[in-house]
Amino acid sequence: MIEITNVAKTYGAGENATVALKCVSLTISDGDFTVLIGASGSGKSTLLHTASGLERPDSGAVKYNGLDIAALSDKALTAFRKEKVGFIFQQYYLLPNLNVDKNVKMGADLVGNNGYREIIEAVGLGDKLNKLPSELSGGEQQRVSIARALAKKPQVLFLDEPTGALDEETGRQILGYICALQKERGFSMIMVTHNANIAEIANTVVKMNSGKIVETLRNDTQKTAYEIGW
Question: How much is the pTM?
Answer without folding.
Answer: 0.91
